Amino acid sequence: MIKLKKITLMGIAIGLLMNSCSSPQEKKNTKADTAILVKVVFPTSDGTDVLTISGQIESAQSANISTRIMGYISNMNVNVGDHVNKGQLLATISNQDLLAKRAQTDAMITEAEAEFKSAQKDYERFNTLYKEQSATAKELDNTTLQFSSAKSRLEAARQMRNEVNASLGYARLTAPFAGIVTQKLMDAGSMASPGMPILTIEENGTYQVTASVPENTISMVSQGSEATVTIAALNRIIKGKVSQISQSSQFTGGQYQIKVQIPDNEKKGLFSGMYATITIPLKKTAEGGILNDRIMVPLSAIEHKNQLTGLYTIGNHNKALLRWVRLGKTEGDNVEVLSGLAKNEQVILSADGRLFNGAIVKIK
Predict the structure, then answer these.
(1) pLDDT digit string (tens) for 115-149?
(2) Rounded mean pLDDT of 266-273?
(3) pLDDT at residue 156 tops 70
(4) For the segment 31-48, what is each residue's pLDDT rounded down to a tens digit?
(5) What pLDDT is stored for residue 132 in this prediction?
(6) For 47, phi and psi rounded to 5 degrees?
(7) Where residue 14 falls among pLDDT bands split at 50, 70, 90?
(8) Do the strands 361-363 and 36-41 form a parallel or antiparallel pair, or are they unpaired?
């Protein structure tokens, strides 16, 4: 009887143990058998490739303001950030020496005018006497020569005054166009030298992006091509067009400069000097061969776990399969998949429940 009781107790214990072990598995299987509704997409591919380069926003028109004379800056009327109008006075250069020289030329002109009037009267008088045969030809020639010399000295004095007036004009620095002061390299009291920049003015509200393209790609970029400008600092994406392509890389180390025009309605909030990323679609000609198709998937389908990136596809028996992938360039709402995914695989875009590897799924 004691042995029978022991056997009975052992059987009950084994039964309880089997129930406790099998119950979670059965629950798990029951949960797994419930299909999760999912929305899927196929990867997109094309015969194009893109060029991604870094650029910088700059004003479409800028000017370095300098002077052609040497002197101390007597007045500086603007500061960095000031808006200026065309023709507005920006700074003045000390011009006391030029004013003295203009006074000298004025005196020279007065003297030359007096000599000219006297020589003119002598010329007219001797010309009349010569016609009346009261003066010799030599006397008329001498008078004519004196009159021509006086006339030349008067003209020289007047041209000298024009030169001084032109130099005085360089002592007043004015804005060549309406814009904003972006740099002030000197202050009042500094010595200004010919050709040395004093101020920098950029036209306000006219922006473009300048970037450099490698020589092995420049042939696939054409003027008028669409370009996507991404400004990370502002979290903005702007659609533009390639407006200029440099035809020489002599002074840029094998890089060809291009300019991307920004539409007027997208220029608000931009500042010159901001960095941008430019993406330009490239297409090879038949002579250049066909580019490999790229695999593009929506960014919303990407899963991030620790340092890994992956996505869910539909495997055999309608089970979700987590695929670890390596990503490439991002273009708008899509990202390029470099490895880990085939072109004909269905990618799960969204699900009504929590996805996990091996979950039973059903396409909506």
Answers:
(1) 999 999 999 999 899 888 888 889 889 999 999 99
(2) 85
(3) yes
(4) 445 888 989 888 876 555
(5) 86
(6) -100, 30
(7) very low
(8) parallel
Domain of residue 206, CATH code: 2.40.30.170
The residue ranges of DSSP E strands in 193-291, in sequence order, are 199-202, 207-214, 226-231, 236-245, 255-261, 275-282
Q: Assess whether 56 and 75 both reside in one domain.
A: no
Q: Does 8 have pLDDT greater than 80? A: no
If one counts every other C-beta atom within 10 angstroms of the C-beta of residue 88, the result is: 14
Q: What pTM value is reported for the model?
A: 0.51
pLDDT on residue 33: 54
In a domain, 308, yes or no: no
Which domain range does residue 78 map to? 66-89+175-201
Domain annotation covers residue 305: no
Q: What is the DSSP string of 159-213?
A: HHHHHHHHHHHHTEEE-SSSEEEEEE---TTPEE-BT---EEEE-TT-EEEEEEE
Average pLDDT over every residue of 88-96:
91
Give domain status of residue 166, yes or no: yes
Q: With respect to residue 137, please indicate whether it lies within any of the assigned structural domains.
A: yes
- By CB atoms closer than 10 A (0-12, 13-18, 19+), residue 264 is exposed
Q: Is 197 in the same domain as 213?
A: no
Dist. CA 230–CA 277, nearest whole Å: 5
Whether the CB-CB separation of 262 and 274 falls below 8 Å is answered with no
DSSP code for 306: T
Domain CATH number, residue 73: 2.40.50.100
Instruction: Give residue 1's pLDDT.
Output: 44
Does residue 53 contact residue 29 with C-beta atoms inside 8 Å?
no
The residues facing 327 across adjacent strands are 337
Residue with tokens 């119950």: 23
Whether 211 and 278 share a structural domain: yes
